[in-house]
Structures are given as structure tokens and as C-alpha cells.
Amino acid sequence: MELVLSQGYGWSAFWIVLLLCSAITTFFYARTFADLRRRRFAKLLVLRLLTISVVVLLLFRPVIQYSKEQVQKRAIFFAVDTSSSMSIGDASAPAAEDEPSGAAPPTKPRIDQVKEKVRLWGERLSKDF
What we know:
The longest helix has 22 residues. Helix 1 runs antiparallel to helix 2. By secondary structure, this protein is mostly helical. The strands form two sheets. The chain has a two-stranded antiparallel sheet with strand order 1-2. Strands 3-4 form a two-stranded antiparallel ribbon.
């Protein structure tokens, strides 16, 4: 959270204007009320300078700016074909060495193979997406 000036002015411009206004006010106030006691003059001058400071600050239109960074993970989508051709079985793995060479490799429907791959990819990519 920070306080910024909405007109695009920097804080240096604010301080310059404030010092200039304070100097002019002090000069004319001292000339006008020179007959006041020193202590009373100082109290009134401080009150007047505080008022001028508030007015100058309001003229610069301060805004409290709050910014929060929200880290949002990227999204990833998997498109899966669910047509009837996906129910056809395919060999899910190469034949093991201990299986007889004439035996047919085990078949698994394509949709099940895809679901397994998507689950594995999802686990692997979960920290990035």
C-alpha cells in the first residue's frame, strides 16, 4: 500500500509547492502580525502552516494505491478422442522376455491408455500448470 499523487506529479513537486507556500505565508504573516507576542505568533503560524499543508496535499489529489500480485497457474487442456475407435484394444506394452514368443501381447482399450497417459502427464505438469 502506498500513497501516490493522482495528477501524475511526483512528491518533489509537492514538497517544492509546500515550501514555497509556507515561505510566502510566513513572510506575510510576520509582516502583518509583528505586534503579537512571540509564543502566540508561533502557535498561530504553526496552525496556519498545518492548514496550508493539508490544503496543498488535497490539491495534489493523493490516492492510496494497493496492489496485490496474484500468481495464477497457467491452464493446460487435454483433448481426448472418445469415438468408438478408442474402444479398440492395442498392445499396451512390448512383450516381456519371459512370455512365449507366440503369445499375443495383452491388449488394452485405447481410451484406457490415453486416460493413463493424461493422468501421468497431469502429475508431472501439476507444479507448472
